[in-house]
């Protein structure tokens, strides 16, 4: 993995001045791994989440739980039953997400295809949240922006007849504009009136959801052949083309997501706007003194962030679901938030985190159908991973890691309302 | 300084400005009133609008011609707005603003109900039922925020409460043990919030959001694994019976709404009073506010900042758990996946709209509950006004409140800032 997250590829330097400085090289490596760097914490966070998930699987299975009733008499029963239950669930999670040894031919790519399909929209929303983070804003409104993105992208996709190629671009741009407008509102409210962006964008999330529920049922949008709440399907000319052909679902969206990651990385680190937004994020007062317009930066930042989230929504509706329904955007906005935290504010980190989340989701589907363990477990795992990532001190305490590079691990962006 | 005077606005500090909070509010009211009187008045059907005192179309009713009502009540709104614009004394602000909003709502109702009827008792008790979880959720928010901990996780707490009530209530076949289960579920989330925010200094907005997802995942997972496979064993909680207060319940309209209600309704209303009094008049309240406004100063005089915060966040968990219990033990007879569907965020909206004060939160929650009930009623009578737009009302109102378009809401000074003893 040459394009590993910059934060994650940091050299694993051993803590200086630790009490037991060993001469032995092997011991030094062990010590280095066991010191709390970002890779170790991330891996241990995933392990800890999987362990808690396993406990949930066991306690929610009455048959296995019953074997614990005579645990002292025959402990092997309980342990074997638990192991079988958990290993079957997690084996299916892996097979559905990465590789299925029993599949042959093109079906062998299905898990990866599914993983990337689920990852694509989350990359965009994750980047949206990350960009806002770096400017000192918490864009909890990515969900609403993604919903507006789906609405505009889909309506452009079935209302405007355009030739192939142009149509897709127009639909994507429409989605971006929808999200950008929904990001502009909290941005301008913050810049002009000082309203906290978290409060306003939570409210805008729900307004967007209700608006979606209304617009689906309007004549011209609603599918006349259906009675339930679903819109017409997007024209084939506006759909994101598949990459592998056949019935593999992976589409152009993941390529666009990679490009977007590169673009955001460039924007953050190489452009004037990126410099300004990082300055504002680090210290708004100092930035103001240096001549940067904080209000303009906040507004512009939310517009760009919203546009990215809108693109995420557009990717979802043009690449996967093709029609608007009440749940068309799923949970991609909030998943983007988790992914941004997991990616530690770095665009390439977000890409990998999104692929991890996509993998969990794709594997979760298989786990549900083959091991009959509910897909909801994936939500639990995702939330737990992020809790451990957000509180590295917790992971350090649980696994008794050595304190090292602690400053890097802090995720403090706390500013209150 | 009492609780009710902590709401300062920029406008009040700069008395020379012409466009004060009062005048802005007045201008808004005049605009709304004109819309009501002209637009609603024009399209309203010229037929009786009956507000019946019973549950059906029959019986005693307050009735008015729909067109006339829309115009008259719209005019009242215009008058209230004009009063504010003219610069009537500041102490009349709340009264005039209230009258103006009430006039607008009544004008809207006259337009909608013209030629039909609206059962008052059903509307009022329905609004109250929808408002109870909001009141309790918002009170949880008051406890947390006033002590300096931002709580975005109210939604998750309500959801865990609802789940706990259904699970424990079914397994023990006891309503009150169900309530205990609800409190336990909600306190688990509250405890996680407290430990991660206070001890591990994790950003409070981040952790609240993540805890919501955790609660959604855990309840959804256990629901599918346990409750869907064996509903009789895990998801048929007993129903909490209404508690009828003798004599008082016989008063028309008010009686059946307020005095023949679920015990949780009484608890919610009592808690509003208790927390209002507690925050303003007791040692605990003074300490809570001190910790929420200026933790360093509080620490200097020997108040345990972290201890106070832990206590209040956990108390908030207890209160939110009661709100969660309302969903499964009173409103619906069973738990459903994501059944709170955003009520926690409306509670958050009520908390902010109510200015972080218990009584303000109560009225905001009642208003939002009414808007919600009205949306249900209007879609039932086939109104042309889409129910989605009425349901947007709490969110739009909150945005207006935090943007300070009509009097800015001010959060406790140290809200969301973890305290690290130096």
What would you note in describing this structure?
A two-stranded antiparallel ribbon of chain A has the order 1-2. Chain A folds into 2 domains: 12-97 and 371-417, no CATH class; 123-354, no CATH class. Chain A is built from 17 helices and 2 strands. Chain A has helices at residues 25-34, 38-59, 62-67, 75-97, 110-134, 142-159, 166-193, 197-216, 253-270, 272-282, 284-289, 294-321, 332-342, 347-370, 376-390, 392-399, 406-409, and strands spanning 230-233, 323-325. Chain A is globular, with a radius of gyration of 23 Å. Chain A is mainly alpha-helical and 417 residues long. Chain B has 422 residues and is mainly α. Chain B is 68% helix and 4% strand. Chain B has 18 helices and 5 strands. Chain B has helices spanning 10-13, 21-43, 66-85, 93-113, 120-146, 154-172, 175-199, 204-227, 231-234, 254-258, 263-281, 283-293, 295-300, 305-331, 343-353, 358-380, 387-391, 393-403; strands at 48-52, 61-65, 117-119, 243-244, 260-261. In chain B, the strands form 2 sheets. In chain B, strands 2-1-3 form a 3-stranded mixed β-sheet. In chain B, strand 1 (48-52) and strand 2 (61-65) form a beta hairpin. In chain B, helix 7 packs antiparallel against helix 8 (204-227). The longest helix of chain B has 27 residues, at 120-146. Chain B is globular, with a radius of gyration of 23 Å. Chain B starts with 9 loop residues before the first helix and ends in a 19-residue tail after the last helix. At the A-B interface, helix 8, helix 13 and helix 15 of A face helix 8, helix 15, helix 17 and helix 18 of B.
